[in-house]
Amino acid sequence: MLEKFNKKARNKISNIKNRVFPGAIILMYHRVAEVDSDPWSLCVKPKHFAEHLEVLQKYGNLIHLQRLKQRIDHRETIHRSIVVTFDDGYADNFYNAKPLLEKYDVPATVFITTGGIDQKQEFWWDELDRLLLQPGTLPDLFQLNINNQIHQWELGEATSYSKEAFERDQSWRMECSEDPTPRHALYRYLYQQLQFLPVYERKKCLDKICVWAKAEPIGRLTHRSLSHQEIFELESGGLIEIGSHTVNHPFLSDIPIDSQQTEIKQSKHSLEQLLGHSITSFSYPNGSYGIETPSIVKEAGFNCACCSIANPVKKNSNNFLLPRFVVEDWDGETFARWLSRYF
């Protein structure tokens, strides 16, 4: 009984502390766009993003990630500080997000996957969506050799996928417990098979899927990555910081240490060559890191790194494991209710 009472007392004290000293929060976005298919819930509609920015102006002190890091280092107050970040480096960060950030004067940090810069192909998870989940006709029998193992799938009635059926299934997400068609089941299955493959092996598989699907090798403009020039212009004006997100967006916890070092160091070098100054912020792709990864990031010359643990930032937070909250495509009212839980 006493233990139960003590636990309740500790929780009550913790809640009071969170209200009086809420710390800072880092928000993680990916895209500001409205697309027909979004299996990973990466997109926030421009209208909703504008509403988010209006809410943020009322709730706290909006600062850059590097400023938050400085405050932590100098033991300055971080209470009610808010940092906006973007992962991956989609082109809509420049065309849709930046104008709204400028309109509401909200600073942000954009973490860029350098291997996608100036590429005509989409990120591999988007490419898989383009090949499998769009309206049209696919061959019935699918075969793919992955690591010397033949994977076979029959689409059956899903070989033909109408626009009406596509619109019906637009709300499907990877976190859904059921798949509306064999195409969605195949997408899920192939994602699980391809996600941990080396980059060159995964590309070989995607090229074979593209040939099987009789699809064009060039990706959708709506899903492309930033170009060199767009990154340069994205940073201009000082409102947006640029950070690194590796070269190829791997699960860092699942690759050897030397491969981690290459991914982390090369992405930093590429961005520094492009922008002409030091890049000191990093974020872990997929929120994935091993025990040694934060040390590798630090040794590469970064001074902070963001992960995907959903917690507020406290004054004693590890600069190389800064927690973040994923933001979804909420309207302004829903976003305000969500934010009020922390402030």
Can you describe this structure?
With 343 residues, the protein is an alpha/beta fold. It has helices at residues 2-20, 46-59, 65-73, 92-104, 124-132, 163-168, 182-194, 199-213, 228-235, 257-275, 293-299, 332-340; strands at 24-29, 31-32, 43-44, 61-62, 81-86, 108-112, 136-137, 141-146, 149-154, 160-161, 240-244, 281-283, 304-306, 325-326. The strands form 5 sheets. Strands 1, 4, 5, 6, 11 and 14 form a 6-stranded parallel beta sheet that branches. α4 (92-104) links the parallel β5 (81-86) and β6. The chain is globular, with a radius of gyration of 21 Å. The two termini are 32 Å apart.
Q: Multimeric state of these chains?
A: single chain
Please report the total strand number as a whole number: 14
Distance between the termini: 32 Å
Question: Radius of gyration over alpha carbons?
Answer: 21 Å
How does the major sheet shape up? 6 strands, parallel
Percentage of residues in DSSP E strands = 15-25%
SS field, number of helical segments: 12
* pLDDT < 50 runs, ≥5 residues: 9-18
Morphology: globular
